[in-house]
Amino acid sequence: MGLDADLERIAADAAVLAGPGEAVAGVIPTEPEEGQRVYLVAYDGPSRSWIALDDDARPIADRSTVRSAVAVAALAELAEESAGGGKLEELRAQLLALRLTEAPEGIEEAEEAALALERALGAPPRLATPAYLDAVGAATRRLEDALGDGLSSPFVAAMKQASGLVEKLEREVLGGYRGALS
After folding, report:
1. What is the pLDDT of residues 130-149, one digit of tens each?
2. Are 121 and 88 in contact, with CB atoms under 8 Å apart?
3. What is the CATH number of the domain that holds 68?
4. For residue 111, what are the domain limits?
5. pTM exceeding 0.85
């Protein structure tokens, strides 16, 4: 079963858990540890609420597991938004135009690196995992090197600022969590 089918299944199971006036707003698939699938489910209603479900659609009560899932989800979102300056398609078009008009040295390497980053990012839906973060980070660094960014990395700088984003999402999820956490 693919990720699309898993998300549909989890969303359907999560809809059964919705309270009066609530609807499933989204499902974020994560795997904070290899083989440990956690789906973060957001509900819209009178107020935003959350639940984390395992692969069998059972609610997760372990606070540490929920926090790990939230962290990897937030980091994956930031990585996707920051990789390639956040405008990878536009960058690839600019590199192509530059190769066709000026053909500077190293342009093919930059184009290959941009394509490799696009492949690492993949198409939605994406499973947020530490391995995914590593792959996007490595592909982004290769692109930054090919573009001549030297020692500085805008991607690394963005990821270093991620703690605020992770904390914000964690507060939202844990503050609106449906059920007790241990």
Report:
1. 999 999 999 998 998 888 86
2. yes
3. 3.10.450
4. 78-162
5. yes
